[in-house]
Amino acid sequence: MDITRGRSRLSGMDIVCFICITLFTLACLLPIVLVVVVSFTDESYLVKEGYSFFPRELSIAAYEKVFSTNPMRADRYFLGNQLLNSYIVTILLTLVGTIVSVLITSMAAYSLSNKQLRFRNGFAFYFVITMLINTGVVPWYMINRALGLRNNFAALVVPSLFSPFNMMLVRNYMNGLPEALRESARIDGANDFVICFRIILPLSIAVLATITLFYGLGFWNNWFNAIMLVDEDSLYPLQYYLMVIKSQATALNELKKLGITDTNIVLPSESLKMATVVVTIGPIVLLYPFLQKYFIQGIVVGGVKG
Known about the structure:
The chain is mainly α.
C-alpha cells in the first residue's frame, strides 16, 4: 500500500488480489452451502431436477431419519437415541485418543531428536519402514484380537494411537531447536523428563498443535476400527453409524426398484448423504480456528528442519 498524508491507498494490484481472494473464498463456501441446501431438499425433487441452490420442494425427512430413535432398543443408548450415543462415543474417542496420541508421539520424537541416544538414526529408519511397507489387514486384525481389542472402547482408540509421519514431523521440528538448551539444562541437573516437558515441548507448540489437529481429525472421522473390531452398536462412532444409515437407505431404495418391497415411501438417499455431512462436520470445524495460527508454521518448519 502507498502511504500518503497518513492515509493508506489501495493500489491496482491490491484490488486485484482482494477480488481473487474473494472469488476463491466463494468457491470454497458454495459447495458447503449446496450441501446444506440439498440436505433440506425433498428426495423426489432431487431425483427429477437434481441439485439446486434454490429448490422448490423442501423436506426434513433426511434429518428425521438421522435423528430417529429405535424404541425397541432405546435402553441401550444414551437418552434412548443412537445418534446421541454415537456422538458421545466419538467425542470421548477424539478427546482420549488425541491427548494420548500427542503425548506418545511427542515423547518418541523427543527421544529420537536426542543426540545422546545411541542408534537413534536406526530407530528412526525403523519407523520410516512402517510408513513404506504395509503388512495388510489380516495381520493387523489378528494382532488386535490377540491384544483383546474387540467390542470395547479400547478397540476404537489403541489401533490409531501412533502415526510415524506425525512423529517424524515433530522430531524434525525438535532437531531444529538449539542443542545448547538441553546441555545447559543437564548442567543444572535436569533429567530428560524435565527437559522434555518443561523446555522442549513448550517450544514446540506450533508442531504439537499441528499434529493435534491431524490426530483429532483422524479420530473424529475414523470408522475403520469400528467396522473391523466392534459389533456392539452402543459402541458405534458417529461416522460408522451414519454410514450404516446411508447404506440401509440406499439398499431399501434398490430393493424397491427391483419390486421386492411394496412400500410407496421414498427414502431420502441423496439428501441423507448431505445430512450426514452436516451433522458430522460441525463440531470438528469449530476446532480449526483455534489451531489455525500454528498449523502452517508447524507443517513448514517440521517438514524442512532436521
